[in-house]
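Example record for the data management plan.
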Amino acid sequence: MPTYLEGSLVAGDARFAIVVSRFNELITEPLLNGALDTLKRHGADLDQVTVAWCPGAYELPLVAKRLAATGQYDAVICLGAVIRGATYHFELVAGGAGSGITSAALDTGVPIIFGVITTDTIEQALERAGTKAGNKGSDAALAAIETVNLLRQIDAPSAG
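Corresponding structural encoding:
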């Protein structure tokens, strides 16, 4: 029989940092509220959560990596919104944020969750920030909780 490892959705004593892009705050503030609500509903102590605001999505990876490197957090959640415009800027920002967040997580070994929504229109972004399409900040918080618990299982000494 195979051994299955699966993270639970109980935050317990896990410590979280959330890095939020100030750009598109109309979108990112509801994402933050969704993440905080989900952490609370799953047992996190919000007094142990740090929220760091940064200028935009492009700056998320550096701030997240710096927070992760402190050793104070079990996971870092990155929240942002990149909305396509008429120029190539969208691809640069979205791609830089995505690859930077991935690199930061791999470099630090701390889960750094990609909660950056990338949409063609502001209407699509609003839908993903708590209306029709749920709240992607909440989804990112769930991913953080589950990943923390999965990594704890992997790191735990085997019984036997």
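Summary line stored alongside the record: The two ends are 16 Å apart (CA to CA).
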